[in-house]
Amino acid sequence: MITFDERGVSDHPNHIATYHGVRSAIVTLSKSPSASTPPILGLKLKSVNIIRKFSGILECLCALLSYEYVVLHFGLVTALRGMYIHRSQNLWYRQIFVLLSAFTYVNSFSQIT
């Protein structure tokens, strides 16, 4: 399962609540394993400080050196297309965020324990 981390990436309460729900499910399921249910690997998207958050593509280097699970993605056009599809999200400052955000180019994960 993949979710946000304890900080919710942007300190958004819904993101933080999602992390706690996923973590609770993983802990509960791992306490009562069954032969028919494979173990669940839980990964949380790592929040980064504001400088790294807006370092864009430069964050790729930090991520590759710092985390066990890293996904590189150079799909800027795909990210912008997603903004256009969701009209309520397609605001000028969010378009700038997509351009500058490290999360557009790299996502780093650590295991939920």
Features:
single chain, alpha+beta, 4 strands, globular, 14% strand, 113 residues
Tell me about this structure.
It is built from six helices and four strands. It has 113 residues and is of the alpha+beta class. The chain has a four-stranded mixed β-sheet with strand order 1-2-4-3. Helix 5 runs antiparallel to helix 6. The protein starts with a strand and ends with a strand.
SSE string, helices as H and strands as E: EHHEHHEHHE
Q: Give the amount of beta strand, in percent.
A: 5-15%
* Cα shape: globular
Q: List the total number of helices.
A: 6
Low-confidence sequence ranges: none
Structural class: alpha+beta
Summarize the biggest pleated sheet: 4 strands, mixed
Strand order of the largest sheet: 1-2-4-3
* Radius of gyration from the alpha-carbon trace, in angstroms: 16 Å
Distance between the termini: 12 Å
The residue fraction in helices comes out at 40-55%
DSSP strand count? 4
Arithmetic mean of pLDDT: 86
SSE blueprint:
Layout: E1 2-4, H1 8-11, H2 13-31, E2 43-45, H3 50-53, H4 59-66, E3 69-72, H5 76-85, H6 92-100, E4 106-111
Parallel strand pairs: 1-2
Antiparallel strand pairs: 2-4, 3-4
Helix pairs in contact: 5-6
Brief characterization of the structure:
Helix 5 packs antiparallel against helix 6. This protein has 113 residues and is an alpha+beta fold.
